Amino acid sequence: xxxxxxxxxxxxxxxxxxxxxxxxxxxxxxxxxxxxxxxxxxxxxxxxxxxxxxxxxxxxxxxxxxxxxxxxxxxxxxxxxxxxxxxxxxxxxxxxxxxxxxxxxxxxxxxxxxxxxxxxxxxxxxxxxxxxxxxxxxxxxxxxxxxxxxxxxxxxxxxxxxxxxxxxxxxxxxxxxxxxxxxxxxxxxxxxxxxxxxxxxxxxxxxxxxxxxxxxxxxxxxxxxxxxxxxxxxxxxxxxxxxxxxxxxxxxxxxxxxxxxxxxxxxxxxxxxxxxxxxxxxxxxxxxxxxxxxxxxxxxxxxxxxxxxxxxxxxxxxxxxxx
Length: 323
Description:
The protein is of the alpha+beta class. Helix content is 32%, strand content 27%. It has 10 helices and 12 strands. The protein has a 5-stranded antiparallel sheet with strand order 2-1-5-4-3. It has a 5-stranded antiparallel sheet with strand order 7-6-10-9-8, with helices on both faces. The protein has a two-stranded antiparallel sheet with strand order 11-12. Strand 11 (297-299) and strand 12 (305-308) form a beta hairpin. The chain is elongated and about 110 Å long. The termini are far apart. Residues 1-32 and 35-40 have low confidence and may be disordered.
């Protein structure tokens, strides 16, 4: 059974300034609190203590379909949190105030009739009635629920396409460690994703290749211009070498700050081997073509001469270049 993180352990280790944290009479006050700083009229206010609602205002109750806020008091938060979002909610609750996202995530709650309600929730650690509490605001995002659902479905489709294509899509952080890889990349490296994430590029490149690719990364970082069609050899899991063709571009965060590099990579080992075999076969055919004692002339459908062997010169008494 899920439970709210142990706020007692967490806040016993913190110094909470009484003039900022104390929101009620620590000697057993009425429990009435004022609106949080910055709280707007379209938001609901809630207080959680030991995983239970100890206070909700009418707006919060209304969002969840309750006429009386008291109907929620004493109820476990996990009774109204959607099961699939409980991990995300827990992670958000446990964030320190200096780690809170600029755009808080959207959660799903269940209303009185077990229907999904989309909400933004943002709160912080405070004291309420002399006890640790998580106090925050809720914004009803249900009007955007269909849009959110559509975006999530689109994201899932794109993720499926991303994983199904036979192209390795990956990202490296600024230290050169792998931070993202799609399924095709895992197939190419023949390693599970958990083994690949965090893997430094030097672990699968020899010093000469590492020097070459580092110079390219520095160029891309400096200019911001992607570099395409880079062909290099990398170590394979079997102990041999694979030839890959890759492109490098920058990744940036929402503020435009450079966060790393994105690679679009194809394993061209088989293609290079086929090209090598084809070139060798062509060389053998050309050697045979040139050594035959009979005159051989090849023409196209319009009877224009394409090629002729050396014997043609002696037999036909004409230079090959003049045929």
